Amino acid sequence: MDTFQKEVYVKLINRAIGERGVTHFAKEASLSAGNLSRIRKGQLATVETLKKIAAAADGVSFAELMDAAGYTESAFLKAADPMAVPTTSQVISIPVVEALRGTKKEIKQDDSLKKEYYYADAFGSGDFIFFVVNDDAFAPKVNCGDKVLIDMAKKPTEGEIALFLLNGEETMLRHLTRQGKKYYYYGNDLGKYPMTEVNTADIKIYGTAVRAFVTM
């Protein structure tokens, strides 16, 4: 097992239960209310129990629960339904990136980065990484610390949100538009994050944001 992140784990369990209450949710997840109550207080659940919780939850994935519980990739794969996932090629690992370093290929091959595991068809086709948002340029919908799914195979079109490296140093997530040899980047609040001009040579684009995962 990897590190058990108890605080994150408890938050995810409570988020999964939501407003349904322990008794109601336990019934939907085919668990005993007593067992679920102990898990809600921080008791580590088995992989099979986490599968049941994820299946009954709205907005909490099996991969998130497995990661917070500290289970390894092999445990994730063993827990997968053999009829639904006949080979490991149907499970993908997605690196979690806080700052851009190296090429796209180097990021995907960096074993020091945290990985999250999902079924391959969860997001469709693409070359994905997660980026941990480092400012409030997209607040209040997406805030500092939230994760954004980046498709490195997708080039941003006019005004889409792109992940890029500015001047070889600063990792940024911004709306991006291009006019000739200039890029213009900006946030949702133009008063705080105004449209800023930069030469195309000074920006290295790593991909386009396709989905946000808001931390509760």
In terms of topology, how is this protein built?
Elements: H1 6-17, H2 22-28, H3 33-40, H4 47-56, H5 62-69, H6 73-79, E1 91-97, H7 104-108, E2 115-119, E3 128-132, E4 147-151, E5 161-166, E6 170-179, E7 182-186, E8 196-199, E9 203-213
Parallel strand pairs: 1-3
Antiparallel strand pairs: 1-2, 3-4, 4-9, 5-6, 5-9, 6-7, 7-8
Helix pairs in contact: 1-5
Description of the molecule:
This protein has helices at residues 6-17, 22-28, 33-40, 47-56, 62-69, 73-79, 104-108, and strands at residues 91-97, 115-119, 128-132, 147-151, 161-166, 170-179, 182-186, 196-199, 203-213. It is of the alpha+beta class and 216 residues long. A 9-stranded mixed β-sheet has the order 2-1-3-4-9-5-6-7-8. Strand 6 (170-179) and strand 7 (182-186) form a beta hairpin. Helix 1 (6-17) packs antiparallel against helix 5 (62-69). The longest helix is centred in the first third of the chain and has 12 residues, at 6-17. The protein is elongated, with a radius of gyration of 20 Å.
Specify the biggest β-sheet.
9 strands, mixed
Separation, N- and C-terminal Cα atoms: 25 Å
- N-to-C order of helices and strands: HHHHHHEHEEEEEEEE
The share of residues in extended strands comes to 25-35%
Estimated helix fraction: 25-40%
The whole-number mean of residue pLDDT values reads 86
Number of strands: 9
Shape: elongated
Return residue spans where pLDDT drops below 50 for at least 5 consecutive residues. Answer: 82-89
Q: Could you tell me the radius of gyration in angstroms?
A: 20 Å
Structural class: alpha+beta
What's the arrangement of strands in the largest beta sheet? 2-1-3-4-9-5-6-7-8
- Tally of helical runs: 7
